[in-house]
Structure formats: C-alpha cells, structure tokens
Write a structure and sequence with these properties.
This protein is α/β, with parallel strands linked by helices and 328 residues long. It is built from 11 helices and 12 strands.
Length: 328
C-alpha cells in the first residue's frame, strides 16, 4: 500500500479508501461476520481510511462499520458525512450537531477524524440538489451565522470531530467556490474518472451536460488543492460503469464514451494494462491533486484488483496527460 498526505491535516491516507456506501455495498450487505471479514481484509491490505455517511442505509453503514471495527479492535481513520433535509434548515447548527452525535454512537467512537457536508450548494434552498442527497443549501447556510461551519467549530472544540470537508460535485460552481475559497474546510470530495475529468482539468475536459455522471465540475478539485485542501475522489469506476469495455446498464452516452475510450487506449500504442478497472484506478492514482480514491468494495477480490492497480504504479506523465485532455 502507498500513502499520501491529506492537505494540511497531517493525516497520511492510504491512496485507496474503503467506500462504505451503496456502491459496492460490502458494509451494507451480508452478515456481521462477513462484514467484519471484509473490513479486516481491507485493513490487512493497508487501507487505513473508511468513508461512510449517516444517510448510507439510513445509518446502517455507520452501525455495521462501528461494530466491525470494534470486533477487530481496529482504529483506522474514519470519514463520515452530514446530510441535511429542508426541515433541518430551521436550525442548521443544532441539526448538524445532532447528526454528528448520532453518528458517533453508531460508529462506537468518541471522535470522527473527518466529517463532511454531504449536501450540494446552490443559489437558493431547495428540497434536492441537482445531484446527490439531502436538501440544496446556500453558501450562507454553510458559512453564515448559526450555519454548518459554526456547528463544526463547536464539535471540534468538544473533540467530537478533528477535520472537516464537503462534497464538491454538483450544485452551482460559483457557490461551491465560496466554500473552497473560505479557508474553513480541510478537504473536498470530488467526482473524477476516465469519463469525467472536469473536477481537475482547467479548462475542463470535454463533457456532456446530458449525463449526470459527466456534468462540468469546473476544476473544483484543482481549485481546492491550490487552496491547500486535501482532495478525495469518488466514482473512480463511474459507479461500476468502468468495470470492463462491454455494454452495461449505463445510459447510451456512457456506452459511447467507453467505445471512444477503448479506441483512445489502442491509439496510445503503449504497454498500458487495458483491463478497464485497473486502468481506471491507475489513471486516478496518477492525478497529483488527489490524495485518496474512495472505492466501494463488495468482496475481497475487488480489494485485490485495487491492490493490483497500486502495484502497477502511476501512468507515465505522457499517458496520463493524453487521457486527461482527450475528447473521450
């Protein structure tokens, strides 16, 4: 396993994190013993960060992860998230504090290493953001009086959390930039994969607004990195669409892009591994702005594939840049 520094936090993270959400779903499925064995396998492989959220399985992800870690007597880095709904906005500060305190109980811990705001940020409040979970908040809801940041400050002073972050894909770029530029957060969570590089590239690589997975994220990851924040990447395998080159249940645009991707790899004329899952992971591992890739695992074989990707090493700079700015 390789490790990388998470921004200015002082934390050293494994370059692959265990995603405990519904994608992969290893912590949400199976028996407690099966969950414990999978978590233990990840720890044995050197994975030292587990990323969960209060909303995953309506708290079951945190509960199952907490139980498994307690049984294993393991203390890895834990990242979790707060997702607010419209009624919570009547008292944002207290809602955030209550959510984190409930997460602490489910996780069976006194402190969460990294707590992240799960909501998207837009120009106005709404029941849902354009992508993802929870209500859409405004930048003022986050940064203003009695907002998310004030709640995080209280929780940090109480020792219940150590570092803070937010979800940086979706919402409105101008409003998200207020958060990246505020110097109030330690990390950002971005979407980055072979089909969508727009969180990193400046100007963004070609994309399509017709595909949710491929919206333009306006270089938000690079902007956060340049502001000293740690960058965590999710959907490295595009929610499973980048497992192989064959057609999947993904939409037609994703299928078309995969065909273009295959041709692009062929044109590169290198010895690069063309197993798409490994290529996808190695590509994301090659991004200098990203600290760790949050990958959802459902079994030990998938952890093994991730380890093979790490062993394969980063792509050559020419290979990485060739894909980064391509028309895939």
């Amino acid at each position: 396993m390789k490790y990388s520094d998470l921004g200015k936090t002082g934390l050293s993270l494994s370059v692959v994190a265990f995603g405990c959400g519904p994608t992969g779903g290893g912590v949400l499925a199976g028996t407690p013993l099966e969950q414990e064995l999978l978590v233990g396998h990840a720890i044995d492989a050197g994975i030292n960060i587990f990323d969960t959220a209060a909303i995953y399985g309506q708290g079951k992800s945190e509960e199952n992860l907490g139980r498994a870690l307690n049984q294993l007597k393991a203390s890895p880095i834990i990242a979790s998230k707060v997702a607010l709904e419209l009624p919570d906005l009547n008292n944002i500060k207290q809602s955030v504090i209550s959510s984190v305190e409930a997460s602490l109980k489910r996780l069976q811990t006194d402190s969460i290493d990294l707590i992240q705001l799960h909501n998207r940020i837009g120009l106005e409040r709404s029941e849902k953001g354009n992508i993802g979970v929870g209500a859409q908040l405004t930048a003022e809801d986050v940064l203003g009086p009695n907002g998310v940041i004030e709640a995080f400050k209280v929780l940090r002073e109480q020792g219940k959390i150590k570092f803070t972050g937010f979800t940086g894909f979706g919402g409105i770029a101008s409003e998200v930039f207020q958060l990246t530029d505020s110097n109030k957060f330690d990390t950002i969570n971005v979407l980055f994969n072979l089909l969508n590089r727009s969180a990193i590239t400046t100007p963004p690589a070609p994309h399509s607004a017709d595909d949710t997975e491929n919206n333009d994220f306006h270089g938000v990851g690079s902007r956060a990195f340049n502001n000293g924040m740690g960058v965590l990447a999710i959907r490295v395998l595009a929610a499973g669409n980048l497992i192989n080159f064959t057609e999947t249940k993904g939409n037609q645009l994703t299928k078309f892009k995969k065909l273009k991707l295959r041709e692009r790899v062929k044109r590169m004329g290198t010895d690069i591994d063309t197993d798409l899952a490994i290529l996808s992971t190695r590509f994301a591992l090659s991004c200098p702005e990203i600290t760790s890739l949050v990958i959802g695992f459902s079994n030990a074989a998938q952890i093994k594939t991730a380890m093979q990707s790490i062993d394969g090493g980063k792509l050559e700079e020419q290979e990485y840049n060739g894909i980064l700015i391509s028309d895939i």
